[in-house]
Amino acid sequence: MTKNLTQQPNISIVMPAYNEEEIVAYTVRRLVHAFENAGYRLQLVVVDNGSRDRTGQIIKELAAEMPAVIPHRIDVNQGYGYGVTSGFPLCTARWIGWIPADGQVDAEDVVRLYEAIANTDGKALAKVRRRFRMDGLVRKIVSVGYNAFAWMLWPNLDSLDLNGVPKILPREVLQEMRVTSKQWFLDPETIIKAHYMGIRIVELNVFARIRGGGLSHVRASTCWDFFRNLLIFRFSPSLRAPHLRSGQRTAFNQFRTPSESLNGFRLP
């Protein structure tokens, strides 16, 4: 579904929502109003990521209520990453980002993150660093260990919180990056590829709240997948691209066929 907006949006954000009927309306309204109050034009692509509850119906109602909201439906859930990348073809702004529907990051902080990257030369990726987190002790320990492990593999990685979202980057960088992860590894993949491409990381410290409703979809198996994928990315000859630096980005394209890039689509 597309809408004819009178003006080009300043930023497009994809929000995947999987069984988020308890929180999606609150999160969407907060984000839309925050950008409106700041004077920016937001295009919010809300993806019903194969939900089995009322999430899809709520998204349709929000789209009818707010012109900034673009609904998109995936019939069968294929993972968080697939939900995000399936929304990219609907994005029309120069700056493209993504954020979950759990409402853990304040909408005003998302606006601040956009302002931070909008004032760069465009060769940057902006993301939050969840400096103050209300997670349980076990999850905090796992997160610290995971990020420390990533730093052992890539000592010069410009991020202390690989999974921190939202992430915002220029559409031309996203197109060239060719992300392929269908699951939760989408966020680390983005940071690692930005590192290889010589893209500067801009981090904004934020307060991460406990999700306002619904259930977390991150499972124990997800943690093992993260560690396994880090090792694959670091030591697979076709993925690590050790020679890639700024000015050599075309060499990175040989590691992904066009059909694999962004789940097989081209950005408009």
Gyration radius (Cα, Å) is 17 Å
Number of strands: 7
Query: Structural class per helix/strand content?
Result: alpha/beta
Sequence stretches where pLDDT stays below 50 over 5 or more residues? 246-265
Secondary-structure element string: EHEHEHEHEHEHHEHH
Instruction: Name the shape in a single word.
Output: globular
Largest sheet: 7 strands, mixed
- Beta fraction of the residues? 15-25%
Give the CATH architecture. Alpha-Beta Complex
Question: What is the CA–CA distance across the termini?
Answer: 14 Å
How many H/I helices?
A: 9
The fourth-level CATH homologous superfamily is Spore Coat Polysaccharide Biosynthesis Protein SpsA, Chain A
Mean pLDDT: 84
CATH topology: Spore Coat Polysaccharide Biosynthesis Protein SpsA, Chain A
The level 1 CATH classification is Alpha Beta
Overall domain count: 1
Percentage of helical residues? 25-40%
The strands making up the biggest β-sheet line up spatially as 3-2-1-4-6-5-7
